[in-house]
Amino acid sequence: MIQLVIQKELREIFRTAKVLWLLIGVLILMGLALYNGYSYYASHSALLRESQKVTYQQFISQGDKNPHLGAHFGFYAYKPTAELAMIDNGIEDYTGNSFYLEPHKRGVVRFREVTDATGIRSFGFFNVGYFSQFILPLFIFLIAHNIFSKEWENGTIKMILSSKATTRQIFMGKLLACLILVFALLVLLGIASLGLLSLGPDSIHLPRILGAYGLYWLGLTVFSLLITVIGVSVSLLTRNSSLSLVSLSGFWLLGVFLIPRLSSEVSKRMYPSITSLEFENTTFHDKEYGVDGEGTKDERRATLEKETLKKYGVTRLEDLPVFYIPITIEHFEESDGKVMDRAYEAVEMNEKKQNAVLLTSSVLSPFLAFRDFSMRMTATDMHTHNDFAEKAELHRRKVGVIVDDFYQKNTVAGNDFWKTVPQFAYTAPGISWRLASAAPAIAILFGWTLVSVLLMFFSYRKMTV
């Protein structure tokens, strides 16, 4: 009997001209999202790979130079485009992708894509992630808003309830009819996305990302399920198509636009970010005057000189068997690095507090929870960005140590030495790291799933004439 109800509902859906045009529009938007995502992924991946290769080649072929001066020539460490950025590019356009490796200066990730974009980019980049988070829920609500209410409006509810089908069979049949249509779109979108990933420039890494890809689609399936259940339940509770559509559209607008923006402002007021001027002043003061009783830079320099003379058993710097300048460079690189580490840890801790406020607000919006889950599964979130910046900074210090050790005994470095400086390579953390990072968002999504199930049972009990 449930099968007959499903067939009846699907026939009615596809007989409606409005729904057919809506479905055609959604399929066109889906195709556009896939095209945009693949174009972004392919072009950015190739550009960053080539840029990394060129800047490193320039560094290792700079010729004979003083080691310290040659190190200042530097080269860029580029964050490779995430393999799943075709699905969701997250905050990639806002955080930048290049980190300059140069002695004494902690790099700042630069070249943000959004700085060269038009104002319309502030609405987001249209790809599979945007389609799934914004367009798909609205489509589900438009399909489900009158799945029950039309029976009251058409006066057919008594006839349906008096048929051989039980209320449970009627409810499940209508719900499953909507889910079949939604899941058909998801299957089509999933297969097309996987096909494009297999054709992409990094298809060799496809086996490595299949786990994250599968979890993303599992999360999207759960998200679509709870949105469909909410849509069907509201249609049954309101018994009026117009009221149902207004209610669901209002829920969509609140969850997609209003709550994220309000929570963003609240997080900034609760945990205001330090300004660049305050950051520079604080780090400059700590470098010059030290922290935790380290003493001023001059006092630390004098202490280093005494320790170095004692280490080599001489009384004058001129009698040292090594050059003293690279020793001081490496010493203050290490002490200044600790200052910068503390400063950036404070910034990242403040970011975590702001993100916690945003994530907490997602208890009012499943759309916000799924967006957070999506970015973390595709490795396009702030957590992954900070991991890249940390790994790039460690590589910068590693290069500094290599150069300073060479400089202690050599005043000229040629290409043979520059080639010993390793290239930077970054790989995003694996699936277990991403899952741990996404745990709060997953918990909230399951909470919303439970809410939708409770709403379904409540509406089912109201299924009477």
UniProtKB/TrEMBL annotation:
Keyword Membrane belongs to the record: yes
Membrane-spanning residues: 20-41, 130-149, 170-194, 214-236, 243-262, 438-460
Superkingdom of origin: Bacteria
Coiled coil, from the record: none
Keyword tags: Membrane, Transmembrane, Transmembrane helix
Pfam families the record matches: ABC2_membrane_4, DUF3526
Family annotation (InterPro entries): DUF3526
Signal peptide: none
Protein name: ABC transporter permease
